[in-house]
Amino acid sequence: MTPLAVLTGILMGSAVTIALGLAMVLIVFVILSGEHPRLTEEYGSLLASFALFFVLALAAIYAFVGVLRGRPWRWYAQAATYGMIALIALYYWPR
User: Fold this and answer.
1) 50-87 burial string, b = 16+ CB within 10 Å, else e?
2) Residue 71: what are its φ and ψ, rounded to 5°?
3) Domain range annotation of the chain
4) Are the CB atoms for 24 and 66 separated by under 8 Å?
5) Quick one: CA torsion of 30, 35, 38, 39, rounded to 10 degrees?
């Protein structure tokens, strides 16, 4: 396995884990929003975070498969992965 595949695998695993964690929090918020109406105020930012990390996870999965199989489109998937990381950094960067 090449170093690029290892790095991409680490990014993929991290992105999938964060996306799943955010999805679980979203499910808990939906369940508890009837008892705690203040939770509905957090839906927007929670959905945005989930969407960002879900797209990052998809890009990283494609990049990982492309690197492992040596596909010619793997560089586009790598660029999408690093582009999503940059977008997430800009989203969370303090203003």
Assistant:
1) bebbbbbbbbbbbbbebbeeeeeebeebbebbeebbee
2) -75, 150
3) 3-92
4) no
5) -20
pLDDT digits (tens, 9 = 90+) for 58-84: 999 999 999 999 999 999 999 999 999
What token pair was written down for 47?
A: 């959905």
Residue 28 identity (one-letter amino acid): V
C-alpha 4/C-alpha 68 separation (Å) is: 9
Quick one: which H or E segment has residue 44?
Answer: helix 43-69
Phi-psi region of 70 (alpha: psi -120 to 50; beta: other; left: phi over 0): left
Per-residue tokens: 89: 């950094």
| Cα dihedral 56/58/63/66 (nearest 10) | 180
| Coil, helix or strand at residue 72 | coil
The verdict on pTM exceeding 0.70 is: yes
Q: What is the CA radius of gyration of the chain?
A: 16
